[in-house]
Amino acid sequence: MKKSGFKKWIISAVMLLILAGTIYITYSSGGGTDRQQLLTQITSPNQATVNNEAEWAASTEKVITFSGTQGEEVELPLQITKADLSLDNGAQLDPSHILTPTAVSYKIPPEMKDELQAVLVYRSDMASGYLLLAPTGWEASAVVGADGSYGVTLTDPSNKEQTLRYSDTAGSCQGCAITKIGAYFPDQAKWADEKGFTIYEPLSFTEWNQSAAETEDGGTAIYTTGTNEGYYTTGIASYEKDAVDEGYQFRQLEFTLFTETTQGDLEDVVINFFDAHHGPLIVANVTKEQ
């Protein structure tokens, strides 16, 4: 298990620097899905020299280009969000340069370009960040918990009850991770109980499918729950066991949507992007120390 909320960010940043700023991540589909193998590459960082965050926000070109499924380019808005730190250890960077990706080779259907945005989340005490896809216009707020867990919430401005949430236990609360694993992976409920975290109210799924073959030390599932007060949830959950400290990490990306809302293909693209990278896409050097 990870020893801090952003150990994976740090490891990814080092790897990306060695590879001259390029990330190659492959994904093989499974579990009865019809997804094709995907390759993602980040290219051409955009550097903005600024004196403060307000000036940066005004000067940064907030667009990012993805590959299209027909060989063309698909340009999406890029929302950049700073994660609030629950604990300030005094080690925050004072960035003079903000580096943002301008191109990602992940393939997106061109007809979805007006419905999607990319969201880049960074934090002031680390150089790296992460990238997600989300519905266009939804507003992001991100946080890093006191225990090192982290995540971001995107909210539909026209209906505050509609949200997209990413959360990562990041090696912090083991009870939280084990309980989540037992709840979202029903075949692990007995295991969670043996660990001392009984699932007293199992979730009710209308759909639940393994995204890839489950192993002894991890698994990924895409799911939809039943309605509750006119809303339902659909998303992807993933867990893994750390080979070093034997702890567990749980990641989740979940929509909460009004039952009369039709997202359809948009949900699939957002979830598949997360699935392809086993979480958000890690980006190195979002901030550069002054």
Q: What do you see in this structure?
A:
The chain is of the alpha+beta class and 290 residues long. It has a 15-stranded mixed sheet that branches. Strands 1-2 form a two-stranded antiparallel sheet. The N terminus is likely disordered.
Work out the strand percent: 35-45%
Terminal CA distance reads: 32 Å
Number of helices: 5
Number of strands: 17
Q: Roughly how much helix do the residues carry, as a percent range? A: 10-25%
Please write the string of helix (H) and strand (E) elements. Answer: HEEEHEEEEEEEEHHEEEEHEE
Rg, rounded, reads 19 Å
The largest pleated sheet is described as:
15 strands, mixed
Low-confidence residue ranges:
1-39, 55-60
Rounded average pLDDT: 79
